[in-house]
Amino acid sequence: AGMRNALSFALLLIFCCGADALFTKVKQNHPKCFIEELHKDEVVIVHYSSPDQSPLPHEVEQQKYHVGVKLEVSQGATKVFEGRTDVEGRFAFTALQGEHHLCFSVEGQSLGQDFRIHLEVKVGLSDVDYEKVAKKEHLSSLELQVRKLKDDVKRVTSEQSYFRNREERSKRTADSTYFRSMWFSLCQILAMLGVTGAYLFYLRSYFIAKKLV
């Protein structure tokens, strides 16, 4: 049982701090978007490489004329992050709650050129600099490992709570859909019975009026 619990905990840590490796091509006026389901305060790190563009200039004024790829991250109508990519690098942002759209688009006049994008999205990582924490609080190596483990447990617990809430919402939605479908079917049956009754009443009245019965 102990081994099984340890394995389950390890799998949860891997899932919580999992990474998605992606590849796509971006062309001017044809942005590419990926959707990632995140919950509030998760730290997301995007490692990328864009080998088909020239290096991004350091001067802001020169960046206006640079032809390359831009990343925009949004959650609903809220823009979470925006930045120009270099040949290789990384972005980091803190998530809100819900579906996030990670969209790549071409900035500048590319004359129809395709830009390859390789990226790895890591979710659930900590943004805590543990080396600074250890120096500030004078923690030993063992105490620092315990601190990291406690933070990992908090993240796993938060992840479990998030998925439990999602499961409960999905169950409520499914139950609500089922009852609405049931009532709709019942209303259809009652409507058909009503139409049939009215039609039979009309036929009976017609036959009586014509003295056919």
Automatic annotation (TrEMBL):
Segments spanning the bilayer are 182-202
**GOLD domain span:** 31-148
Keywords of the record, alphabetical order, are:
Coiled coil, Membrane, Signal, Transmembrane, Transmembrane helix
Protein name, as recorded: GOLD domain-containing protein
A GO CC annotation recorded here is: membrane
Q: Which family does it belong to?
A: Belongs to the EMP24/GP25L family.
Q: What is its main location?
A: membrane
Annotated signal sequence is 1-21
Any coiled-coil regions, as ranges: 132-159
Membrane association type: Single-pass type I membrane protein
Species of origin = Hemiselmis andersenii
Q: Which InterPro entries match?
A: Emp24-like, GOLD_dom
Localization, per the record, is: Membrane
Task: Determine the domain of life of the protein's source.
Answer: Eukaryota
